[in-house]
Design a protein that fits this description.
mainly alpha, two-stranded parallel ribbon, 7 helices
Length: about 140
């Protein structure tokens, strides 16, 4: 599994990202189309099949996770803290691998520049993959 897929799965598969229960009126209408292989909650069984029926509020999910985390993590600007919040190895080697995966062309020896680029790029990719991401996180 790619590192970005692990990030996406940790956010999009998080409990607070699940759709609200259907109301009586909604239950009478036809359900929306689902990917061929989904879990009971409608979340795609694999990242390859991730055709989300709705936008996932990335900020809400991450805020929810951060509120339950004993560490004070600056996930809004730090790729290291974002990865820690999601339970993903944030080592330099892993971040270099993520940078290659997402098409970083700069020097991976300049980790500060790479980290800033990674955070922005991850947020952009989450947005492209069905996430609702505030403009402040992709700017």
């Amino acid at each position: 599994m790619s590192i970005f897929s692990a990030i996406k799965d940790a956010i999009f598969g998080h409990k607070s990202a699940e759709p609200p229960p259907r109301t009586a009126t909604a239950a009478t209408s036809a359900p929306p189309a689902r990917p061929a292989s989904t879990t009971a909650s409608g979340i795609p069984a694999s990242p390859v099949e991730a055709k989300w029926e709705r936008e996932v509020d990335v900020e809400m999910v991450l805020e929810s996770m951060a509120s339950k985390n004993p560490q004070q993590l600056n996930w809004r600007t730090s790729i290291v803290d974002l990865m820690k919040l999601l339970g993903i190895d944030s080592s330099l080697a892993n971040r270099k691998s993520l940078a290659r995966e997402l098409g970083y062309t700069g020097s991976t020896d300049d980790s500060a520049t790479m980290n800033v680029w990674l955070h922005k790029r991850v947020m952009e990719e989450l947005q492209k993959n069905g996430g609702k991401v505030p403009a402040s996180l992709v700017a």
